Amino acid sequence: MGINVVDYGAVGNGETLCTEAIQSAVSAAREAGAAVIIPPGSFLTGTIDITGVSLHLEKGAVLKGSPHMHDYPPQHYIHNEFRAVRALLVCYESEHVLIDGEGVIDFNGSAFFDFNHPMLPDIPLTEAQIKECTVFYKDRPNQCLFFSKVSHVTVRDITLIDAPCWTITFSECTDVKALHLTITNSMNIPNNDGIHVSACNGVLISGCHITSADDCLAFSAITNWEKPCENIMVSDCILCSCSKALVLGYVHSHVRNVVINNVIIRDSNRGLCIMSSPVTGLVENVRVANVIIQTRVRAGLYWGNGEAILMMALEQAKHVPEEQRPGRCESINIRNISLTGIHCDTENALGIVGSHHNIDGITLCGMTISPKPSENLYLKGNVLDMEPNPEKVVVPADCALYIKEVSNILLSDIRIGGNRRIVAERVSDYNACGIK
Questions:
Q1: What is the pLDDT of residues 115-136, one digit of tens each?
Q2: Contact, 194 vs 169, CB < 8 A?
């Protein structure tokens, strides 16, 4: 039993703006305790508030975002990074919300970008390298599907395409599930993260295929620095990113209790990234197993430089207003991290870089590191790119793994190809066995 948007005046011709009709159907569904049905057809719309209802997209249904900014009015929610939220779908303070079906949400993000105006680094590039760069925009919706303080929320089975910015955001939600999603975004649009989970408790992401120019899966506390993002499981996903395919932490975030298993990261500028600022940030209790990571250095203005794995606990707060800084002091900012059964085909060294030994308790076991040639590594050189920290850590050309300012690290059964070596500087309680 559901409320069909066609019955409330929505026209699925891909040209008629259906915002009012769809919102009327949502209101009726909310009152009736029913789901909203999007039938086959292409339904053009601006912002829809789906608070209190579920949404089912039938096979052949396309919910398509308007190409005009005025159809995305600013929301009351103020995001720490993007300020007033402008989104296609918003949902606030609800419970038992489901978005599912065999249909498509097309965010129409390309409409807000000039693909003839690439944003270029200040170095000469070939035509092929220019095609990899991000493109210019004046304005855009900044959150596509935005959940805030929703409990028992599930998004499953649908396809989401062409996001102009973050595709799905879960902010301060509990019992979150993202299952069997296909997210396919442009590889030239900046900030089009696949799924960003912020300050949530109890998250399961499984069976997702995500391609995006920015982070595929990101876990942080960016929408509420005071609240941890915790109790997270990621499994059976295939990820491809021009930036970080999978990232835990950011600036002041606390991220903890994370299990990642059976993941393939392909053709990405950074693979797995764990990042935290000194004093205020913390990433802890992370288990990663059975992951294949393939990196490729991208030519555009992307963070990273082909690092398959990068852990860094360096100052990142230049990107965040000082008034957002939480009043806490952590002496250790990355701790209790275990990586097992990881294979890296990488165009650069792996890195674990701390400051004043603020990384503690790292285990790498059963890992292979297979260096490969890179067409673009020369653009930044033999460095680990620490962005959003401005530091570039220079590493020897024959370095496979660079470790600095780390305590209590165990390396076991590490196989390294290409006559590369491990470089360790100012490391304490360092144990290595079975390095080949």
A1: 999 999 888 999 999 999 999 9
A2: no
